[in-house]
Amino acid sequence: MKKDVYIAIVSHNHQDLIIDAFASFPKNIGNYTLHLSIIDNINSQKLKTFSKEEDIVYYADNKQRGYGANLNKLFDLLSPKDEDIFIVCNPDIILNPIQLEKILDKTIEEDADIYGVKVYTRRDFSKVSSSNRSFPCIFDFFSSIVLKKRPYIHNPEVYANPDWISGAFMVIKSSSYKKLKGFDERYFLYCEDIDICYRAKKEKMKIVYNPEFYIIHESQLASRTIFSKTFLVHLRSIFRYLITHRITCILGTGGNYAK
User: Among the four 22, 51, 179, 232, which has the fewest Cβ within 10 Å?
Assistant: First the structure.
């Protein structure tokens, strides 16, 4: 029997990226039935038409939500069963169906609650990122934004059970997503991925980073421009994370300090 996999995408004027990445995307791969699902913040007629043509679940209701709130709304609308898989996927992600099938196989084989893989940031595979990450300390955020250095990100070639993985692409057990009650909607954008993994660690859930497989993520990193609107949103999310989880460490990779 095929397992249902729901790929959730939030669009905020990202219709061209989504159409480029998911035109003619398969509905079935191996033992999986794929359900591409989009929640649209701007009611793009172009995206709505594309979704209808491609038999993609499309939802828009003229309400402005944060990233996590949009994903929670889409999860509720889709109502996955406990045995299903829910994938959080940025609109600027490029998925290779062959890679995706292998990722899903490994997620099930390793009985992981949250699964992440190697991330190439260019289509020519010339630059690589990593979801092998430790929880950041206070100065780590400053280092990331101002110094452009992220000491909490570790070797992208090493298999690991990291503290957290990037929310740009997360494979999550539906039952685990339900247990965690999804993303914390108080984060409008940024840090919601750190938060959900922090809570998953507290629940003793299994988080896996496997560099054997990959996705492509051509991120714009808009939040890195100091005093831009997105930077200020990012800053608010950082403070919320630090205060919510009472993070007091100043410097270092943080480690798994979830209690």
Answer: 232
**Which neighbouring-strand residues pair with 250?**
none
Q: How far apart are CA 122 and CA 216, in angstroms?
A: 7
Q: Tell me how far apart the alpha carbons of residues 46 and 187 are, in angstroms, rounded to a whole number.
A: 29
Residue 259 pLDDT: 45
H helices within 137-228, ranges in order?
Answer: 138-145, 174-180, 192-202
In a domain, 157, yes or no: yes
Give per-residue pLDDT as tens, 146-185. 777 888 999 999 999 999 999 999 999 999 999 999 999 9
- Cα 234 to Cα 38: distance, rounded to the nearest angstrom: 24
**Residue 111 belongs to a domain with what CATH number?**
3.90.550.60
pTM for this predicted structure: 0.92
